[in-house]
Design a protein that fits this description.
CATH superfamily of the domain at 8-89 and 99-139: DNA mismatch repair MutH/Restriction endonuclease, type II
Helix content: 25-40%
Strand content: 15-25%
Structural class: alpha+beta
Largest sheet: 3 strands, mixed
Strand order of the largest sheet: 1-3-4
Number of helices: 6
């Protein structure tokens, strides 16, 4: 496994060398098997790239490249280069009190991101899907203001017992959705009457329109 990159320039150089590479070929080069599909291997592409680029955070609550403060995020894209789905950011702290946007896990994760577009057309076998051109990004003032407003609205609902009332329609750019499909994977949260409840874990996700705008600005893609 490669050692962690020493700086952003080295990380970006490593990432750019992977652009155009098929996932199956990269997996073979790293001595890994390629699953037939991602139904039971949702995080496989991200883990493959973490391995290839020398990420060292693993499952710790910090950016994938903690020495650089850079998070790695893949974006499954269509043939037109537009995102096919929302992007997972991190879990929602369901019992968080007193946390601010400045100290939030969401902000730490999105402060500096290495975006990696990946072909994701269903008719293309996983092993043949290619990596796109990577992009190092930080939110500009307008983007951060929008993300902060969404986070504050959503976390107010979580902390005030409104978790069960949150739907995919809340949040302009950032949304909260159930994270676990298994109904037995329950976690503690605050109920509508302020009493503790058990509920499914939740995750923060970026809407496709947000990531599409990032790609459009940097790669001259069709407007959204």
């Amino acid at each position: 496994m490669p050692t962690p990159p020493n700086n952003e320039a080295e990380l970006l150089d490593r990432a750019r060398r992977l652009a155009g590479c098929a996932l199956g070929r990269l997996a073979r080069d790293l001595g890994r098997d390629t699953p037939e599909n991602l139904r039971r291997h949702k995080g496989w592409i991200g883990e493959l790239l973490e391995h290839a680029l020398g990420a060292s955070a693993g499952s710790l609550p910090e950016p994938d490249f903690p020495e650089l403060g850079v998070e790695l995020k893949t974006i499954p894209v269509t043939r037109r280069g537009l995102p096919r789905e929302s992007t997972y950011v991190c879990t929602v702290p369901l019992e968080a009190h007193g946390e601010t946007w400045q100290t939030s896990w969401v902000r730490r994760k999105l402060n500096r991101v290495l975006w990696f577009p990946v072909e994701a057309e269903p008719d293309t076998p996983l092993a043949e899907r290619r990596l796109g051109t990577p992009l190092l990004w930080s939110p500009d003032a307008e983007q951060e203001d929008g993300l902060r407003a969404d986070w504050e609205e959503l976390m107010d609902m979580v902390c005030m017992g409104g978790l069960e009332a949150i739907t995919a329609h809340h949040g302009s750019w950032l949304q909260i959705r159930p994270k676990a499909a298994n109904a037995r994977a329950l976690t503690a949260a605050v109920g509508a009457d302020g009493a503790p409840i058990l509920t499914l874990p939740r995750g923060f996700y970026l809407r496709p329109a947000f990531t599409a705008e990032i790609l459009r600005r940097h790669f001259a893609l069709p407007g959204v």
